Amino acid sequence: KGKLPCSNPVYRQFDFWIGEWLPKNAQGVTVGTSSIQLILSSCIVFENWETPVSAGKSFNVYDVRDGKWHQTWVDNKGLMTHYVGGLVDGKMVLDSESFQNGRKVVARMTFSKLPNGVVRQHGENSTDEGKTWSTTFDFTYVRKK
Prior knowledge:
Largest sheet: 10 strands, antiparallel, barrel
Shape: globular
Number of helices: 0
Order of helices and strands: EEEEEEEEEE
Radius of gyration: 16 Å
Number of strands: 10
Helix content: under 10%
Strand order of the largest sheet: 1-2-3-4-5-6-7-8-9-10
Distance between the termini: 38 Å
């Protein structure tokens, strides 16, 4: 029997995000649900995000060609965002670049597995090539009981 295509341990770097979650905002209010699954022969970490005001899905995959993790996010507002990154000090750090009003904006998401089993997803934006950052969201993923 041949080796599965995504059996290299590098494909497991984002598995800490897999689960059934109740994401809370910085104020501790549950904002919706998130179901993170391993699909397609354990090659893809698949996110299903739902809140009363929005819904989205993301496909997260390690690409052996560039040695980076890629997230493609799509939502019910017609947005599509492509993030690229990888593990930094045990945290998954993914960046996307876009242009808003002629200025380059870097959006960064940092996923951290905390000792109590929750996962923090911290969103930040920078308009000065990463010199300064402002928080755009700060979610704590608490496992559904």
